[in-house]
Write a structure and sequence with these properties.
Distance between the termini: 29 Å
Number of strands: 6
Strand content: 35-45%
Oligomer: single chain
Number of helices: 1
Structural class: mainly beta
Shape: globular
Length: 103
């Protein structure tokens, strides 16, 4: 089964090195992200953390950070990532995209 997702050229240039057929994983719902660590690019900020819960309004992240400067996406760590000890709740409506990175 082939699925197509449209992204801007700028976004594609940033993530193209991370995209390979062997690593592709089909995700049918956000609930499938529970227990996994993701970067969520939102309308205003970028968040990184392990997905704890998902409901109709938000996604709760633990071991979470706000990322102010990602640097190179293929790096082992973000250039400026500030941890949030109590976790973060990301509003689902604000999410533009999400990635699984090496961080």
């Amino acid at each position: 089964m082939t699925k197509t997702i449209e992204v801007s050229n700028e976004t594609y240039d940033k993530i193209k090195d991370q995209l390979t057929e062997a690593e592709a994983k089909e995700i049918n719902s956000l609930e499938e992200l529970i227990g996994e660590t993701y970067l969520f690019q939102c309308a205003r900020y970028i968040y990184h953390g392990k997905v704890k819960t998902v409901n109709s309004d938000f996604i709760e992240l633990v071991d979470a950070s706000v990322v102010f400067n990602t640097g190179q996406y293929d790096a082992n760590e973000a250039e400026d990532k500030q941890s949030v000890k109590r976790g973060i709740k990301v509003m689902r409506q604000a999410i533009e995209s999400f990635y699984e990175l090496n961080w």
